[in-house]
User: Fold this.
Amino acid sequence: MEKVILDMDPGIDDALALLLAISSPEIAVQGVTTVAGNTTVEKTGLNARRVLEYVGRGEIPVYYGSSSPMTRPLTTAEHVHGLDGLGEAKIPMPRQLPSLGGIQFIAETVANNPGEVTLIATGPLTNVALAFILYSRTPRLVKRLVIMGGAYHLTPYGRGNVTPLSEFNIYTDPEAANIVFNSSVPLTCVGLDISTNPSVKINRKRYEAIRGLTGKKAELASRIMKYQLERWGEVEVHDVLAVAAALRPEIFQTVEMRVQVLTHSDASRGATVAVKPREGEKNNASICTSVEGEKFFELLLSRLSEPG
Ligand code: BDR
Ligand code: CA
Assistant:
């Protein structure tokens, strides 16, 4: 079983990604660290615990990480995820609060298990960047980092969702993303190029298939997805694809690229410029350009039907 830390900002699709991860026997979730992004870090931490306790997995630790991006004010996305960040579905509040020390938890878990821990980051990269800077051995000791972030303009779907150039997680903390992309960590990127491809979206038919399953996980998934389904007629499951890419790399296609993150404070803020490396130049990221949509959905459906 692969040791995994999930760094996230739940968030409806983060919560679904968490459900997929804890239902997958291939991986052992060591803990969840949360970051400010879709909503405040207080709420993202509570939301991770709400999800875990609801499905009977309250033993998985949750840690608060950073409450704001490295250098910029926080921009949240409650208009996408609801005021509570979980689709206002009245999911009960947790009995236990998250612990403090998310950044330290990442660094210590990686240091105690050199070369064995996969990080999956589905929010702004603030916690990961701080773990890499404050504990400088971390990027060398991580097995690999899989992120949901970026709009690479490599497919017809690779346009930004905050600005035409920039995706939310990178836009929110471009300085952190810049540190991560320059860290030499083995990096796989799930960006909007695949996560907004219609073949992976949860349309009404797929939603009904999830709603028809029995068990707490599927019930929770359909309750929180309802918010987006009712507004937009479909649910974008960006972050779930990052977990799927860690679990099932064989259903994804990737290209090796050299990515530069733009950190200006103009219309290019948070753009992820991907170019083919020149002869002798190193790539710094494997970017997902396609995924077998039906296989992805089958994986999600089968795991959500798992009890406990
Ligand atoms: C990303 O932004 C957030 O709103 C989602 O949770 C996802 O991580 C998509 O751009
Ligand atoms: Ca997210």
Summary: Residues 216-232 form the longest helix (17 residues).
